[in-house]
Structure formats: C-alpha cells, structure tokens
UniProtKB/TrEMBL annotation:
<dbReference type="InterPro" id="IPR050503">
    <property type="entry name" value="cAMP-dep_PK_reg_su-like"/>
</dbReference>
<keyword id="KW-0547">Nucleotide-binding</keyword>
<feature type="binding site">
    <location>
        <position position="347"/>
    </location>
    <ligand>
        <name>3',5'-cyclic AMP 2</name>
    </ligand>
</feature>
<dbReference type="InterPro" id="IPR018488">
    <property type="entry name" value="cNMP-bd_CS"/>
</dbReference>
<feature type="binding site">
    <location>
        <position position="224"/>
    </location>
    <ligand>
        <name>3',5'-cyclic AMP 1</name>
    </ligand>
</feature>
<dbReference type="InterPro" id="IPR018490">
    <property type="entry name" value="cNMP-bd_dom_sf"/>
</dbReference>
<dbReference type="GO" id="GO:0034236">
    <property type="term" value="F:protein kinase A catalytic subunit binding"/>
</dbReference>
<protein>
    <recommendedName>
        <fullName>cAMP-dependent protein kinase regulatory subunit</fullName>
    </recommendedName>
</protein>
<comment type="similarity">
    <text>Belongs to the cAMP-dependent kinase regulatory chain family.</text>
</comment>
<feature type="binding site">
    <location>
        <position position="356"/>
    </location>
    <ligand>
        <name>3',5'-cyclic AMP 2</name>
    </ligand>
</feature>
<keyword id="KW-0114">cAMP</keyword>
<feature type="domain" description="Cyclic nucleotide-binding">
    <location>
        <begin position="155"/>
        <end position="274"/>
    </location>
</feature>
<dbReference type="GO" id="GO:0030552">
    <property type="term" value="F:cAMP binding"/>
</dbReference>
<keyword id="KW-0116">cAMP-binding</keyword>
<feature type="binding site">
    <location>
        <position position="233"/>
    </location>
    <ligand>
        <name>3',5'-cyclic AMP 1</name>
    </ligand>
</feature>
<feature type="compositionally biased region" description="Polar residues">
    <location>
        <begin position="73"/>
        <end position="83"/>
    </location>
</feature>
<dbReference type="Pfam" id="PF00027">
    <property type="entry name" value="cNMP_binding"/>
</dbReference>
Amino acid sequence: MADPSTADVQAELKEYLNSKNINSLFIQIVERLLIEKPDNPIGFIVEYLAKRYPDETRAAKVGHAITQRTGSLASNLTSASSRVESEEEQTDSEDDEYLDDIDLQPTTVPKKIVRRESVSAEQVGANTKQPELKIVPKSDEESTRIHEILRENLLFKHLDSQQTDQVKDAMFLVQHEPDDVVIREGDAGDNFYVIDEGTFDVYIKKEGVETKVKSLGPGESFGELALMYSTPRSATCKAVTKARLWALDRISFKIILQATTTARRKQHKSFLESVPTLEQLTEYEILTIADALVEDSYEDGDVICTQGEVGDAFYIIKKGSASVIQTDALGESQEIAHLDMGHYFGEVALIFAQPRGATVKAVGPLQLLSLDRRTFKRVMGSMETILKRNMKAYKRIAASNI
C-alpha cells in the first residue's frame, strides 16, 4: 500500500499540472521542436514562449529583475527600475513583428503631448450604464442607400453584415434648412452623417478666413472621425439646400462593436469546437483562433480561390457547400471534391508555400471563416501540427492540395 502522505503529494502535483495545463504546454513545445528542429533548442523555447505568451513572459522578466536587484532596496531601487525598463524595451524590440496583433494599453502619457481620446477609451462596458440602442425605421430605399455608403467608407467597410445592419438601424434622421451649420470647425464632434437629400458646402479656415473647399451631395458622408476620436471638428459643413441626413453617435457605435464582437466570438468558439479535426486544440487556442477569424459571404458560382495563384488565406466552411475543381495539363477540368460545413481548405498553400492546386467555387450561398497568411502562421501553430499528424483526415479533406 502506498504511503498516504506520498499519495497526497502525488495528487497535489497532479492537480497542479492539470490546473496550469503543464502537460499541454510541454506537448506544444515538443511538437514545435520536432517541426522546426532548431540548432539551439533552449533559445528556441525561450523565443517561442516569449512570442506565444508575451504578457506572461514579460511579467516573469520583470519579477526576476526586481528580485535580483533588491539586495539593498534603498540604494538599488532606481537602478532596478531602469534595468527592468531596459529589459522590457528589449523584449518589445524582439517582438516588434507581433505588435500589430497585441492589444497594447499604455499606462502613462508623456506630458505636453496632446492626444485624441479614442472611442476605445470611453467607459462603455459591463459596469457602465449604456443607453438603449433604438431601431429607427427606414424605407427599403433608404436602407439600401445607407448600406452602399457604409460599404464604401473606410471606417465601416471591414464590418460584417450583422454589424453593418446594426449601424444602419441605429442611425437617426436629422433635417436642416438652407444655411444651417451642421458641424463647425473647432467644435467637439459626436456624430457621423450620411447625406440622404440635399447639398452641403464644406469650409476650412485659412489664415482666419473661411474658405470653401468642396461640396457634398446625396450618398456622401462626413464626420466619421467623431466615431473614433473625441476631437474638434476639422471643417465647417453648411447646408446649401433643405436637407435630410442620417446620423450615428459615437457611443452607439462603440456599443454595437462591443456587443457584436462578443457575440461573434462565442459563435465562432462554439462552431470551432464542433469541428472534429480541431478537437485536440485547447480552449485558449480555440479562443485565439475565434478572435482572428474573419467571416466572408459568397453567392452561387463565386470563386474563392483559383488554381495556380499564390495562397494567401485559409478557410473553414461555416455554412453551405463548395466545389473543388482541378484543371489538368490538357486544360480539362473536373470536380475532384465537394466540401460542406466544417471542412477546411487553403491550408496546404500556406503550410508548404506552394500555389493553389485547385479552384474552389461556392455551390449556393456560402459562409466562410478565414485567416490570412500572417495570422494563420501566428495562431495556427497547433493546428498545423494536427493537420500534419492526422494524415487520414488531412488527406480526405485536403487531397486536392488547395
């Protein structure tokens, strides 16, 4: 019989390993080592952990630096602080290529630097009382016109169909008479406007004198910076004729982005967990992928990727079907695979850096979740290993080398 104390210790150690996902971490590290086969495995592991878990490794570096430098707290505190900052700067430099993918929240702002207050800085969260978003009725013609304008606007063109619909629904009607000033240069800006009817002249001050710089008409928009920054208006916009505009305020825009982003994350997570090939991924990995996915919609016959082109994205079918068509050396084309919900394609071109081996077309309405090349390499390390290891499923779904 085992010593009770020994059994307790073993149980405690096992509980620690499970609670901290140590086994999963070791498996990830060993898998990356076997794939990359680095000459310096220790350095590779350090770099891998720094890139995959930047917050944790940075915190560990700071803690280690402080511990080493507190032998004499009174005399060494300043030195410790400067060295820690130096190490953090070095880490930031090493991870420079990942900065675009990390949510950096600055803790201090240097004095004498005036910065615009971003919409992300406004307190619109779970503990903040939020105004109720109202759906403002619009005719089909008005809805279509607003949709077209939003699709062409740089600020809105990245939104998915659900977000665009919510933005459109939240826009409220504003009416103006000739000579009315809608926005004035230097005033605080809160709303974004889409012109439904009427014309407007835009003025900016040059050497203290208002100068007309352009005119705007139906289908055009102005004031979008007010949705992103609490910044003074950069121009004056005055109605030339009787006019109707649709307006959206900054807080509503923020709430829409928060609500739809959270809902979409949960939806993507639930979907990814239902894909058999991804069942070996941890919850952290699933959430990382869910956050990075972009949803795309296609109609019947639309081409998603073309044989011979350079692969720049990986796709998972969320809803609908797709046909895989391959053309041989004689120019003869034939369907070699039919893909349905949960199937994926495009990974071969990204993993092995080779051109697309086939053309994929939508069969009826199709919804895809996609990752671009850079994001795929950053977040799909574990899945890349799974794809290579699960050769049976891999060959069945990706036999077309697309």
